[in-house]
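Per reviewer request, we include the raw input and output of the structure prediction for the construct analysed in the revised manuscript.
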Amino acid sequence: MQVFKTYFKLLKCYKGTLIIYFTLFLVISVVFVKNLSAPSGEQAFSSYQLDLAVIDRDKQTFGSALKTYFEGEHQFLEMEDDEDAILNELYWRNLDYVLVVPEGYEDSILDEQKPDMELQCIKIPGNYESSYFETELIQYTGRLNGLLSCGYSMEEAEKELENLKEKTVSVTMASFVSENQNDVSTVFFAFVPYLAISLGILGVGIILLQFNKQELKDRTECSAMPLRERVTGLTGGILAYGCILLLILLVTAAFLSDGSILTDPRLPYFTINMVAMILFGLSLGFLTGTIAKNVDAVNGIVNIVGLGLCFLGGVFVPLEFFSESQK
């Protein structure tokens, strides 16, 4: 029992570091829970509406057809063709994006003999939402050029695009775990491996580092305490630390989910997964405490191994976000 008590006395000395890592994990979890979790049946996607203006210097059908096509998705404001006025509206955030149709643009896409012209834009620097409209605009002009290549006139192509827009596709969000795939509990437990690995390495490695100091190790070897008792006490301390960590995670999950996790049929599976990750973290901590030379080395290993495994293992960046060449 003496080694067991000593383990937690040493652990108490480093409680500040452990609390920092747990707080960091809690902040990350709360942020992702708020951003990613959604109640069952809630719409998971909604388009972003921009305040746009079209400066049609071409004075043909393209500008008006473009506004008609995007009218239900974005808000179009009337704007005079004056650079100072445009910049003033953009500065005060009354406009997000100004599309300029240059003179002769429609003739350039109808007549292959004429050089291609490009649409111009004036937008707020750093406004990433405008990129969505630019993507939609590229799709619109690409489809328009495709119809024109098939022999449609400009008016017929614009009308056909309007008809195609009215056709909608029914989308059903897939749920590979259960109907509550995006609830608080699922999102929270998706990030548990980060804490299990980080605190497992830190809570075991930093203590073993003290036990493995040459002076303390020599004095322990000369004592009357048998090796079996020392190993048993150290093993009991590590396992008790893992159980405390598991209990803290369960309490945190119950708090964030308002107690719904306690009646969730997936709780046994979540618990098994947590136990496996905590044992993995404790094992890495044992290895770290054996090979590390000082506390700074342990902290470095925690950051590199903890964050590295979580990124590579899909904790922070799910595998479906990568392309086939990156997998």
